[in-house]
Amino acid sequence: MTPNLCHVYLLRDGQHQVLTIPNEFALSSTEVLLRKEGNRLIIEPISSASLLSLLASLEDITENFPDIDQGLLPLDDKLTPI
How many domains does one find in the chain? Predict the structure, then answer.
């Protein structure tokens, strides 16, 4: 068989059909999108985007925020409990 082709069997589990995916076709994702195009089933992995990639996609904040530390004592000058 060709490297992109593998013969597998479909099993029945109650109301569901189960497809076992061989290791050479294993997906790194734990969730997939499944769609049907004609007689074909297309399985696409859903990649879990990291928080860093989400933050990188956001626009920069141009607002000026108030200085919430204004009027507070510096950390070194705080009083210690007696």
Answer: 1
